[in-house]
Amino acid sequence: MPESKFIICLLAVLSISACDTTARTTSTTIVSSENKELLNIAGYEFGPFVDLSGLLFSGGNLSGLDLPGIKLRHGYLPDADLSDTDLSDADLTDAILVNGDLNNANLYRAYLNGANLTGANLTGVNLNYASAYMANLTSAIMTDANMTSADLSGANLSNANLYRANFNGAGLMGANLTGARLRFANLTYAFLNDADLSNADLEGADLEGADLTGANLFGTSLFGANLLGANLSGVKLDEANLRDAIMPDGTRHN
């Protein structure tokens, strides 16, 4: 074969190979994009709005995934890693998340009614507008958690670490907060009707405009707390520490 013809053929082959490579690259990218939406982990397909109710996934790792709207009702996920995971609008009703890691997870408008999160790490979690009616958060770590307008009525938050947590406008009616650490927490305009806050630590907490009607504050520390405009009707304040607290009428307690 003449040299010129050989060079032309070689260029043609290289051109076809380059086209094929481009095609394969595009195909891989599409598959990769699909995998971001639907991931197969331990035989389960995870993705936004997927229904995995009743899932058994003890100790599973779902850290950093985008799972908005996922349904995990009655799921069994103790010790699971859900840190930095997007679970906005997710349904975790009656799910078991004991000792789970939900550090910085996004649970905006999520449903956690009846869920068990005993001992879970919820540091910096976004629970704004979430519903956690009757949820069990005993001894949970919720430092810097955001729960603006969340429904936590009837929830068990006893002995939970709620340092600097934001409960602005949250519903905590009938909640159990005995022994909870709420130092410098924001409870402005929160609804704490009939809540049990006995022996809780509310030093420096902001309760301006909060409704504490019928709440139990027996032995509670309110040292330096702000109670301006708060409703204390029927509140039990036996043995409570109110030193330097700003009272509902604006006066400072001795």
Give the arrangement of secondary structure elements.
Elements: H1 3-37, E1 39-41, E2 44-46
Antiparallel strand pairs: 1-2
Question: How would you characterize the overall build of this protein?
Answer:
With 254 residues, the chain is largely without helices or strands. The protein is 14% helix and 2% strand. It has a two-stranded antiparallel ribbon. A hairpin with a 2-residue loop joins strand 1 (39-41) and strand 2 (44-46). The longest helix has 35 residues, at 3-37. The protein starts with a helix and ends in a 208-residue tail after the last strand. 47% of the residues are buried.
For this entry, give a set of tags:
2 strands, elongated, 14% helix, 2% strand, little secondary structure, two-stranded antiparallel ribbon, 254 residues, disordered N terminus
Strand fraction equals under 5%
Helical/strand content category: little secondary structure
Describe the sheet with the most strands.
2 strands, antiparallel
Mean pLDDT equals 88
**Number of H/I helices:** 1
Number of DSSP strand runs: 2
Q: What is the rounded Rg?
A: 26 Å
| Range of helix content | 10-25%
Give the N-to-C terminal Cα separation: 106 Å
| Topology order in helix (H) and strand (E) letters | HEE
Low-confidence stretches: 3-36
What is the strand arrangement across the widest sheet? 1-2
Shape type: elongated
